[in-house]
Design goal:
One of its GO terms (cellular component) is cell outer membrane. Helix content is 8%, strand content 52%. By secondary structure, it is mainly beta. The protein folds into two domains: 75 residues, 3-Layer(bab) Sandwich (Phage tail protein beta-alpha-beta fold), CATH 3.55.50; 566 residues, Maltoporin, Chain A (Beta Barrel).
């Protein structure tokens, strides 16, 4: 059944689609007529076409400029009266001369311009000719100074995700943390959850090696400030687990706090924003071979180059193939994927990028939970082995196919008005044949039964916006007005065989794995089966505006958004007891969200800020026992903080304190089984501090501490406390009001550092080390019991063979070990099961860049 949106919703989307088509057509015609008149400065091309290997230490700017001129073999002069007192953070790697000089001058208040055919002149920033730098190559890594690029080292200074405009992080009045490409390369995460391990306010592995936590996944197990996270790719919400493939990502950002004003349906804890790899202006050629424990073998490639001689048409192709076992028996992970893309710079004001992706994951390597006894508790029994497979061998298929198409179009009409549009279509197909465990007959046994699922998710999403800059007297405005919409369709087939079960001895599973015969034919009277065919459809549209107002060093941000959502569903249940047909009535919901913030940037780099923001998430697909739809989840946040960017240094320090209230969260209706009820209000409050620093050319550090106190603030719900030793409730009913929300660690701390040894000690060799602490969490709503805190250590090493021999230039070896001590730990527990964390993981690779 298709959604039935109100007339004004498709009208708004149509207006923006019509505008996009008209703009694109006009630009193409204009370009065709003016193509021959567009030219590129020969001098600019001469000084910036060839990448050069730089090795410039941090120190005085004057010394850095002398070293730059010598190593680049480019004449350099200065128009500035003095360079005294100015510092540079240095430079190391392969850069084009123009990009290298831009980096050296970063934070100094100076810029440069091209003089003649092959020379540079340092000038005050206000006198510089506008120069747009594309991506540059740094030691084989693509590094581009733009808000969707990989950042430099461990520091990214600009972002698009916070405001949908290119804005310095130090001018945005809320918390944004960037996982740069360099950080991912040093840590070698194999999915998004692992990449977020060192991010403030984010608990990324709630479900350990289960819940899409082992092999991939952007949807499960990630929380921000205690709330479930929402994932976006290139600014559009995604439902595809392939979004967690780090081989295709340029960077990952955690926007902590409500982001509904710009993105719509986002929980108040925040969102995870990911940017896909796109064609680079500087050629990139990279291949790698990897290996690891549990029989992991991996091959990747990443190639980008010009198609036309002028470079106005460029391509990029990234691919991955991987196979491995896991720490759990009978569960394997296999994946092949490819992502081609092409960018056409139609003219100097217009560009079009097309991306495609296909991913096949015949085994996802995801495990299920384990019983409390043997994990959280002993009860006289030894610990359950992480290799234990609780299920039916041969009934452990969990495969997925993902396809995606995306385009990004940009056009600058003039210095006041710009146009941007991003569209993505994606489809995921899941085929699951697995087993579940229903209860434990004893502390050493579990009962399992078979189930199957086929599901297909199809999403179309479009974001269209007009933005620009304008001055009104002393005020400088960066404004944006836009609309986005999304359609989602999910047919699902689900079947449980309740008549076929096995009893598995968790300490001697091989003796109890049987050849179970299962039946999913609901027409067979000898089967006890429940089959469900379900269809879910929803349509969402939002219209938003935002203005960033700047007066001298003071910035004010204000924005608002109106959302409309319509949801339909139908379900047919077949069973041996009879058939049930359910057709849900449309559930339209709407909400207005807004935010406002203020931030002041002192000349010495400190930026204090304060902000207020709201969020909206429709609660579709659920009703109370009377059939009434629930009110949307609504959140409100107050946040205050400090950001400090040390002038002339790649060091960004942040601190923030927040308080979030969310109303209308749902809990199970204990009186009417199978239904939900309004739980009241949840409150999350705490603070975060973090540091991202390229301390020198050889030393990079990230560190953070998060304190999150999340409680049921306003509720009339009660529950009995649970005794995990006996597996039963005890005592009288206890009010949930004021109790901690389960699965949310109150304290988290992490630090990670990478150091390349001095050349006179060992040329090209580097080490890294990290520590992660996650505090205890409660198992239920009335603080019955805690899972213990745990601390993990990660180490790694890397060696650049090119430092020892020019013949081996571009070849690099790397080793990354997570959970060095192989600590056995529990990430979270409920009243019936626990999730185990990943044991020691060893991964190494050889990478070649040319």
């Amino acid at each position: 059944m298709e959604p039935s949106p109100s007339p004004r919703r498709p009208f708004t989307a149509s207006i923006f689609l019509l505008g996009a088509t008209t703009a694109l057509t006009a630009v193409m015609i204009e370009t065709a007529n003016a193509q021959t008149s567009v030219s590129t400065s020969s001098s600019s091309a001469t000084v910036s076409a060839q990448a050069v290997n730089f090795d410039i230490p941090a120190g005085k700017l004057s010394s850095a400029l002398v070293a730059f001129s010598t190593q680049a073999h480019v004449p350099l002069s200065s128009q500035t009266p003095t360079l005294a007192g100015k510092m540079s953070s240095g430079l190391r790697g392969q850069f084009t001369p123009s990009a290298a000089l831009s980096h050296i001058l970063s934070g100094s208040g100076l810029s440069y311009r091209v003089v003649g055919n092959n020379a540079f002149q340092v000038v005050p920033a206000s006198n510089a000719t506008n120069i747009t730098l594309g991506p540059v190559r740094v030691g084989g890594t693509i590094t581009q100074q733009d808000p969707t690029g990989p950042g430099v080292g461990y520091v990214a200074t600009n972002t698009m995700s916070g405001t949908k405009t290119d804005t310095p992080i130090t001018e945005i009045p809320n918390s944004i943390y960037v996982v740069t490409k360099q950080l991912m390369q040093d840590q070698q995460p194999q999915n998004v959850q692992q990449a977020l391990r060192y991010t403030p306010g984010v608990y990324a592995e709630t479900y350990g090696t289960g819940g899409n936590g082992s092999a991939y996944g952007a949807q499960s197990g990630i929380t921000q400030r205690g709330f479930n996270s929402t994932q976006f790719v290139d600014g559009l919400m995604t439902y595809s687990a392939s979004a967690g493939e780090t081989a295709f990502l340029e960077r990952i950002e955690a926007v902590n706090g409500p982001a509904s004003v710009m993105y719509g349906q986002v929980n108040p804890g925040g969102m995870i924003a990911m940017d896909l790899k796109k064609p680079t202006e500087t050629p990139l050629h990279q291949v790698s071979l990897g290996f690891g424990n549990w029989g992991r073998y991996e091959a990747t490639f990443d190639v980008s180059d010009k198609i036309t001689k002028s470079g106005d048409v460029r391509y990029r192709v990234a691919g991955i193939g991987v196979t491995q076992g896991t720490q759990t028996n009978y569960l394997d992970y296999h994946r092949v994927g490819i992502m081609p893309s092409i960018t056409w710079d139609i003219d100097r004001k217009t560009s079009l990028t097309l991306l495609g992706m296909y991913m096949y994951t015949p085994g996802d390597g995801v495990s299920e939970g384990y019983p409390l006894t043997g994990t959280l508790l002993s009860n006289g029994y030894p610990k359950i082995s992480r290799s234990l497979f609780i299920g039916i061998p041969g009934l452990n298929k969990n495969s997925q196919k993902d396809a995606m198409f995306e385009y990004q179009f940009k056009h600058e009409f003039n210095k006041y008005v710009n146009f941007s549009q991003v569209y993505r279509w994606e489809q995921s197909y899941y085929d699951v044949k697995s087993s579940y465990y229903s209860y434990a007959p004893s502390d050493s046994e579990v009962e399992v039964g078979p189930w199957v699922r086929q599901q297909q998710n199809t999403t179309s999403a479009l974001d269209t916006r007009i933005f620009g800059k304008i001055d009104t007297g002393p005020l400088k405005h960066t404004w944006v007005v836009g609309s986005d919409f999304r359609t989602f369709n999910m047919p699902e087939y689900l079947a449980y065989d309740f008549g076929s079960t096995d009893i598995i001895n968790i300490y001697n599973p091989h003796s109890s794995y049987g050849n179970m015969e299962y039946c999913f034919d609901y027409k067979n009277p000898n089967c006890t089966v429940n089959v469900s065919n379900r269809k879910n459809n929803w349509f969402q549209e939002g219209v938003y505006f935002q203005d960033q107002i700047k007066w001298k060093n003071l910035s004010i941000l204000i924005g608002g958004r109106q959302d409309w959502v319509n949801y339909n569903y139908s379900r047919v249940r077949y069973s041996t007891a009879g058939n049930i047909v359910t057709n849900g009535a449309p559930q339209p919901q709407s909400a207005f969200t807004w935010r406002a913030g203020i931030i002041y940037k002192f000349d010495f780099g400190l930026s204090p800020y304060f902000s207020y923001s709201t969020s909206f998430v429709p609660q579709i697909g659920s009703t109370d026992y009377l059939g009434n739809a629930f009110a949307p989840l609504t959140g409100k946040q107050l946040e205050a903080g400090l950001k400090y960017k040390i002038p002339g240094r790649d060091v960004l320090l942040t601190a923030s304190a927040f308080r979030i209230n969310e109303d209308h969260y749902l809990i199970d209706d204990l009186v009417h089984t199978g239904y939900s009820t309004d739980g009241g209000r949840v409150r999350s409050q705490g603070f975060e501090v973090s540091a991202n620093a390229n301390i020198s050319r050889d030393l990079r550090v990230v560190a953070s501490y998060s304190y999150t106190d999340m409680r049921f603030a306003k509720t009339n719900q009660t529950a009995q406390r649970f005794d995990p030793y006996t597996g039963s409730n005890y005592g009288g009913a206890v009010s949930e009001s004021g109790m901690s929300v389960p699965y949310v660690p109150r304290n988290m701390f992490s630090v990670f550092a990478d150091y390349t040894l001095p050349r006179n000690i060992m040329r090209g060799f580097g080490l890294n080390w990290g520590m992660r602490y996650v505090g205890s969490t409660y198992i239920d709503n009335v603080e019955s019991f805690k899972t213990p805190a745990y601390i993990l250590f990660d180490v790694g090493a890397h060696y650049d063979f090119g430092e020892s021999s020019p013949i081996l230039k571009g070849l690099k070896a790397q080793l990354a070990i997570s959970n060095l001590t192989n600590k056995y730990y529990v990430t979270a527990c409920g009243t019936t099961e626990c999730y185990l964390g990943q044991g020691r993981r060893v991964y190494g690779n050889l990478t070649y860049n040319w």
